Structures are given as C-alpha cells and as structure tokens.
Amino acid sequence: MFTKKITGVLLLFCFLIPAAQAQATDDIKSYFNETATKVKAEADPEQKREILAGSLERMTTALARVEKSRLISDEDRASLDAFGKTLQEKQDELAGINGFNPVPNSQLNSFADYVVQSMEQADKTITVSVVTALLILIIVILLV
Amino acid sequence: MFRIKMSRITGPLGVGMFLLLASSCRTVGLGDVNEHALMDRQEPVEQSIVFLVHGDADYLYHGADGTAHQADEEAVIKALRVARRNPTAEVFIFHERARTRRFFLFPRYNGTFYYFRGGDLLVQETYRRGKEETRLEPEAAYYQANRSAQETAPVRMFIYLGHEIPEMEGVSYDTSRRRGAFSIDYFARGVAGFAAGSGPFDLMVLSTCNSGTPHTIQAMAPLADYIVASPDNLHLSHFDLAPLERLDLKLGATGTEPPGNGMPGTVPDLAREFAQASFDRLTAEIQTVVTIAVYDTERTRAYMEAVAPTYDSTLAVLQEVAPSRLEHVDCREVGPLTREQMSEGVAMWYRAPRFGRRADRAAHSGWQCWQEAGGSLR
C-alpha cells in the first residue's frame, strides 16, 4: 500500500518536477516554521517542549521510513541520512542527552527559531531531484 | 531561428503560434528600453555598483514572526532602493530567475536587468541567462554596453547574493536547470567579463554561505581589492545592503580619501561599516552562526598561496566523496591548513551559534575549509 502510494505520487510529479522540487523543500521549511509558531504561542514550557519534540520526532520517523524504501538511490539515501542526523542532534539537544545540556525553558522559543533557521541557510544547493520528490512524500506521510 | 512558409499559416492560430515562436527565439538585447533617456544621461558617475541576485533555487525563509520571505526578491527590492538612493552612482541589477515555459514548451526569459544612473531607472529588460562557462556573459554584455564611458574611474563594486557557489566541479546550481554545472571558477571567469577594460573592483561582496575559503577568495582576489564574505553559513536574509545607500556622502571620489564631510570615506571603511551593520542585524535576529569577514586581497595573498596546494588537492580528493558526507570547518581545525599568518589581512566578525555542537566556539579564523564528516581531511 505504501509502495503504491509512493509510486502514484512519483508518477504525478514526474510531469511537474521543477515546481514539485521547490514546493517540497518549501513545505519542509513551512512545517518547521509552523512548529516554531505553535511553540511561541504556547505559554507552558512543558507544552512548548512537547510540541518541539513531537515535531522533530515525526519528521525523523518519516525520514527513516523513506530511507528504507527500495525506490531511492544510494546517493539520496545518504542525503536523507545526513538530514536525519542533523534532526537527531536537535532532538538530543532538546532532551539534554548525548553530550548536550538540555535546552532551558527560557530558551525554547529561541531553539524553535534555531531549528527553522538552520534549514534556511544560503549554503550550496544539493542535487535534490529524487530526494526532493521523496521529501514531498514525507510530508504526505506526515499529513496522513 | 525557425522558418515558416507564410502560405502554410492559416488563421489567427497560425499567426499566434508564429509570434510565440518568434518571441521565444529573440536574442538578448543590450537594453533597448528608454534609449532616449540613456542617451540624455551621460553625466559621469562616482560609483558603479553591480548587483547579481540569484533566484533559481529555493530561497524561502521565515522571519521570527513566521512570515514567509523570498530571499532573492527581497534582495532585488533592497538593491533597487540602493539604486534610487545614490545620486552619483550607476547601478546594474541582474535578477537570475528560474526558467519557465509558456504552454510547457516555449522558454520564457529568465533574467531581468535594471540600469540606474543618478537614481533614475534608465533601462529595464528581460533576457535569457547563459549556461555553465558562459553563464555570466549576457550580464557582462549588458554591463559593458551600458556603463558610463568617462575618463575618471568610479569606485566600482560587485555584489553577489545567492546560495553557496560550489567549489567542486560538476555540481548543479539552478533548480530549473539540473544539468547546468556551476563553480567558483566559472563564476570568477564570468566576473572577469565585468572587470575587462576596467581592472579589479574596489569592493566585492559575496553574500553566500561558506564564501570565505582559501580557494574562493584566491579565485576572486584578482578581481577585487577588498572582499566581504561569510566564511561559515549565512542566513538567507543575506547581508544588509542599506550601508550602500548615499555613497555620495560616504566615499570620496576615488574611495581612497575622505569625502570632506567628516565621514571616514575609504573603501575599506565602507567594507567595515557594511560588515558591522550586517553583523548587528544578524546577531539580533538569527540563532545560527554569524560570520562576516573583510579580506584585503593583497595582504591575504601570503596565506592563500601557502595553503593553495593542500586545499586544492583536498578538493580533488573530496570531489569523489558524496556531498552528504562532507562538512565545512574552520581552517584552524585542519592542521595542514593552519598558518601563523592566516589572520593577516582579515577583519572578522563572529558570533557562535546559540545551539548545537559549536555553540561553545569563541572565535573563527576567517577561513573555512572542507573535511569529511567525522574529521578526516585526507
């Protein structure tokens, strides 16, 4: 079922790949931006932390599922793996594990901005043809 | 160019198709809008500024209030403001946009050119961008055709705003043109087309991530006396352009002595003011790392020449490594690329990221290098 869904969406986006690529990356950024907005709107630090942790966890889980797919290339798998590792580091820092001190309650809003801004750098564009299409699928999965 | 026998065109549809094809095949003009205005405006200029804004990639970012911004569009708006607020300058603005197609077949023009003189817009035209080694040829042609012909050389600046320009060969740069490779070497060749006949720019700004590397600065050094760059990541909100407004009040006529109104007045002074303004804004708004460096390309030559063989051989080796396994690091962390004189000629503004593994870094050398993730230089 999962494979059929991926195949169907891939076929659809083959005709609209450039627009789909841009949209996929924008959707990922918007996903984290919405998380940051919710965190800042919440007054209770525990709720803030839960929103952040839940958002990072959902994205990490989606990446892990896509990485296991046989439809993606080794290069794309490596890209997703690298992206997943950066997300895992943010989860670790939020929780204060793996060599990190936990993010203090007073800095949760700033940390939410950090998550957003770390994705919005003017670094080199990577070859994201298939990866980006798969990121679209990640979002689809997240919405289900 | 297509040839179509008129006898075979029937009806409005045929004429319409012909016009569409003709417009798609039109070659680049050199600014044929408002020719009379251009001819009437031959006054000499004291400053000449080129803005090259890349927009053919993902440039979405969000402000702290959650609002969405397109970095390239905002950069063009700010460049237009600089152009309008410089009564003694000529300003060239090039906006490189994604390629789109009319009816999925006919490519539209994917570049927009603006030319200002004395604060007034004299030329505005769309054009088709170049590719790979000839990438900046259309823009250079516009520049050479429209720039002020005068005996006294103005203070010249070149500002690039975009994603990190690849240092390795064979990397695509544009979202709408996946097969088109771009590199810092191609970029340098392209910028040389602007400098032809005029010598190096007085000031160059590279508003991209990781632009302060030995290879990049060395490639651009023949083309600029001073370079402002970001050795580490740079947020998509880019450097501030406001310090480039009203240069008539900030710079002396040649950029080497004060303008006589109490302002510091030299190009190095302007470069430092530019860096400081961007640093102040970025550190107030951004949680990720902020690094801005001003390079005196003459004084940094010794360090760049000393490390060039090692750095370039590293690039050749890392070319074979998957991009996702590469990372940028401060050259000071890479033994073979550390030198005593690496700070010579570099003015540095640095604020560590507020979070992450490098939140405890106190300083940055001003030079960025490559390594494989996990710390191996090879």
Structure described in brief:
The complex is a heterodimer of chains A (144) and B (378). In chain A, 76% of the residues lie in helices and 0% in strands.
Largest sheet: number of strands, sense, barrel closure of chain A: none
Structural class of chain B: alpha/beta
Radius of gyration of chain B: 22 Å
According to DSSP, the number of beta strands of chain B is 15
State the domain count of chain A. Answer: 1
Low-confidence stretches of chain A: 124-128
Count the beta strands of chain A.
Answer: 0
Mean pLDDT of chain A: 79
What's the helix and strand layout?
The complex is a heterodimer of chains A (144) and B (378).
Chain A lengths: L1 H13 L2 H25 L3 H23 L6 H22 L12 H11 L10 H15 L1
Chain B lengths: L10 H15 L9 H6 L6 E8 L5 E3 L5 E3 H14 L4 E8 L4 E2 L3 E2 L3 E7 L2 E8 L9 H10 L8 E7 L22 H12 L5 E7 L6 H7 L3 E6 L17 H4 L16 H19 L4 E7 L4 H18 L7 E5 L15 E6 L16 E5 L6
Parallel strand pairs in B: 1-4, 1-9, 9-10, 10-11
Antiparallel strand pairs in B: 2-3, 4-7, 5-6, 7-8, 11-12, 12-14, 13-15
Helix pairs in contact in B: 4-5, 6-9
Key attributes of the depicted protein:
heterodimer, A: 144 residues, mainly alpha, 0% strand, globular, B: 378 residues, alpha/beta, 2 domains, nine-stranded mixed beta sheet, two-stranded antiparallel sheet, 9 helices, 15 strands, 28% helix, disordered N terminus
Word description of this protein:
The complex is a heterodimer of chains A (144) and B (378). Chain A is mainly α. The relative contact order of chain A is 0.19. About 3% of the residues of chain A have low confidence. With 378 residues, chain B is an alpha/beta fold. Chain B has two domains: 30 residues, no CATH class; 338 residues, no CATH class. Chain B has nine helices and 15 strands. In chain B, the strands form four sheets. A nine-stranded mixed beta sheet of chain B has the order 8-7-4-1-9-10-11-12-14, with helices on both faces. A two-stranded antiparallel sheet of chain B has the order 2-3. Chain B has a two-stranded antiparallel ribbon with strand order 5-6. In chain B, helix 4 runs parallel beside helix 5 and helix 6 packs across helix 9. Chains A and B meet through helix 2, helix 4 and helix 5 of A and strand 2 of B.
